[in-house]
Write a structure and sequence with these properties.
alpha+beta; two-stranded antiparallel ribbon
Length: 163
């Protein structure tokens, strides 16, 4: 079985519902959910003139390969109504593979670990909640160490709503 961390984000419509729906699809199509973080709210990153995002990280166990998992999560995004039109634009759902076991993959369609983990507080904070001691396989630092040295200064707060 493969262990992987996925990040989920939404900033359109009923964001909590979209996260819940994505988790249901992931459980049905990808594998067993072993853990999940709280939901965090942050201002948009990249294009900042859009609604705040809700973000979280889940830890799953899957029999799928990295390429199969990527195809599956892209299909989940499409099923949920995501249309990729503007890079870093608003979205119903965004699902990214952060880590896959301790694999390092660099292909035209897939890079693992996700290349921007260490630069995004909205990813590191929920990841640190469920995997503070996990060691980034390329950077050889724990998630906690990456969070402490993260250059991203956007405020990230636990969301008061529930999933």
């Amino acid at each position: 079985m493969n262990k992987t961390y996925l990040s989920l984000g939404s900033n359109e419509g009923n964001r909590v519902l979209w996260l819940h729906t994505a988790i249901d699809y992931i459980a049905a199509r990808c594998g067993t959910i072993l853990d999940r973080s709280s939901i965090y709210q942050t201002a948009a990153w990249g294009i900042t003139t859009q609604p705040d995002f809700l973000n979280m990280v889940i830890y799953i166990e899957t029999t799928q390969s990295p390429a199969q998992l990527l195809d599956t999560i892209l299909n989940i995004e499409i099923t949920m109504g995501r249309h990729r039109t503007i890079k870093w634009g608003p979205r119903i759902i965004d699902i990214d593979i952060l880590f896959f076991n301790d694999d390092i993959i660099d292909t035209p369609g897939l890079i693992i670990p996700h290349p921007f983990i260490q630069e995004r507080r909205f990813t590191l904070l929920p990841l640190a909640e469920i995997a503070p001691g996990y060691i980034h396989p390329k950077l050889n630092k724990t998630i906690t160490e990456l969070l402490i040295s993260c250059p991203d200064k956007l405020e990230v707060h636990k969301y008061n709503g529930h999933l």
